[in-house]
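Incident log, entry 3
Record: Alpha/beta hydrolase family protein (239 residues)
Problem: checksum mismatch between cached and fresh output.
Input:
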Amino acid sequence: MLRKETNGFSYDFYEPKDVKKDISIVLFHGWGSTVESQKELATRLTKHGYSVIVPEIIYHDDRQPLGNYLSKEIKYAYFWKTVMVSIDEASAFYKLLNIPTENLVLMGISMGGFIVNGTIAAHDQFAGLVNINGSGSFVLSEQLFRVMDDQPEMTDKEKQLLENYDPIKKGRLKAPILMLHGTQDTQVSIEGQKNYYTYLTEQLRKTNVFFNEYSDINHTISDEMIEDLIQWLNQLTLS
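Fresh output:
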């Protein structure tokens, strides 16, 4: 693994010994997590021939870390701000990588899933999208968060801001999509993924989208999820 820093962005780069195909994976971690926490998964993916890039996310690691990520006050002040800043800075970051975006698969776990969904909806020129225990339905997911945390409903201003980034409002998405989610997830409800899958398949009529549910899995990544991910990556073809 190599730590790289350029123009204000830092990321870990994992290079495989044997390149399987000309695809690199950009892996975004979840809320309150770290770049280092993705080492095991990134290393496992390189063993299958894929380069993996794990970027530092705003308000995490060395980019203005927040401290107590379990605090509801911090979560509601910074969760969506983190997602939105990451989407906004996507173009600058991918330009610095010097890798054609057509060769990049965006992959996100939990909050990272929100980030990559928002990014690909705004800049649909990537090789594929993987969302694990996240959501592509921003407004619905925030409504579910607030019910779960016994928080007041969104104001009209808050809802409008989310709608500006909500992938469910974007009529694009040519790239293949893989969504994996545990049915017993108590942190990010699977209903957000279900709603987004319905939008993709019924309204956009996408046929290159796959949604796998995993019984008795909470907010974690199982071996079965990783096996399904690797199988999907191995079958992925570049346009």
